[in-house]
Design goal:
It is a single chain. The chain is built from 2 helices and 10 strands. It has helices at about 60-75, 120-140; strands at about 10, 20-25, 35-50, 75-80, 85-90, 95-100, 100-105, 110-115, 145-155, 160-165. The strands form 2 sheets. Strands 1, 2, 3, 4, 8, 9 and 10 form a 7-stranded mixed β-sheet that branches. Helix 1 packs across helix 2 (about 120-140). The two termini are about 20 Å apart.
Length: about 170
């Protein structure tokens, strides 16, 4: 019988769980950073009950899911599709991205428009975590996740973290 005061988790922090991407952050006063890039690192912590084999989940099975999402984001311009002022319109083979006086025309294959309001590390962590959780449900439909945190680090020592707690 498990002790109700005990819990189990795994934490994943590997050098290859990373992606390079461009973005610009829009501040509350309407000003915005210049277009620039980061070498983002991704961190995952997962709390569940132990399975019959004594595992939260197999590291060898979850790491490829995280890596797959990193690879999809790698070498793209990340645009917040839910910002109230910024627009990203696909025109033939390009995206026309406008924010106030700025206008960018970028090949469509180099742009990812995410369902977030700003391209902050916090919002990237939330999007990444929700995407990872959706993919985990396909692989492990019965997995009872108690808590999951995803961190997206834009520079060493500076990361946004998203956490979800699921009810049983």
């Amino acid at each position: 019988m498990p002790n109700p005061e005990e819990s189990w988790s795994i934490a994943i922090e590997k050098d290859y769980l990373k992606f390079s991407a461009a973005h610009f952050l829009i501040f509350p006063d309407g000003s915005a950073e210049r277009l620039h890039g980061h070498n983002y690192k991704v961190f995952v912590e997962l709390h569940t009950e132990l399975d019959e084999h004594g595992l939260v989940v197999n590291f060898m099975e979850i790491k490829p899911l995280v890596r797959e999402i990193c690879d999809e984001l790698d070498e793209h311009l990340l645009i917040p599709g839910e910002h109230p002022v910024l627009t990203a319109v696909r025109t033939d083979e390009h995206y026309e991205i406008r924010y106030r006086e700025r206008r960018y025309l970028i090949p469509a294959g180099e742009v990812i428009v995410l369902p977030i309001s700003n391209s902050s590390a916090e919002n990237l962590a939330a999007w990444f975590g929700r995407e990872l959780r959706q993919r985990m449900r396909k692989v492990w439909p019965g997995l009872a996740v108690q808590q999951m945190s995803v961190g997206v680090e834009e520079t060493p020592g500076q990361r946004g973290v998203w956490t979800v707690r699921e009810r049983a």
